[in-house]
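User: Thanks for the earlier help. One more: Polyisoprenoid-binding protein YceI. Can you show the sequence and predicted structure together?

Assistant: Of course, both are below.
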Amino acid sequence: MKNLVNLRSLVLAATLFSGIVAAQKISSNSVKTVVSGTSTLHEWSMTSTGGNFSGNVSGNSIQDVRYAMGSKTLKSGKGPMDANAYKALLADKYPNITFSASSVNLGKGTMTGKLTVTNVTKTVTVPVNVTKSGDTYTIWGTASIKMTDYGVTPPAFMMNTVKTGNEVKITVNAVAK
């Protein structure tokens, strides 16, 4: 009986230890994010490579997914457009755009989490593709949102003759180790 109790304790300890060892913390400090949309004049896009991603790999999923990007890291290559975007995003008051999710599975699927822009947080479901190569994970996803849902007034300029469309597409590509 004593040997059976010792065996159970050993199996339990090995199981707990293997779960701890199997977890892999991954992160990236150069996540590429593209925000694109339309206006009455032309299509536009802004790109950032300053986003941060982190998570914990557990089996075939990534747990505790975290993403953050400074609003002012988005650049269009056109200074006045950038200034209008930062003003609309209230970037001085709310400098970060964040997303968090409890988990995402490897492969193609969806990830549901909380997106925060300005001071508004909403639950979004994002189509994603998560691949693994060695100890590197690539997480790619695209979602469309309406700026007004997040307290952002679509920018307008040239005395309101050029107006930005309300819907924007956000594409995030994180390569994490």
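User: Great, one quick takeaway?

Assistant: Confidence is low (pLDDT under 50) at residues 3-20.
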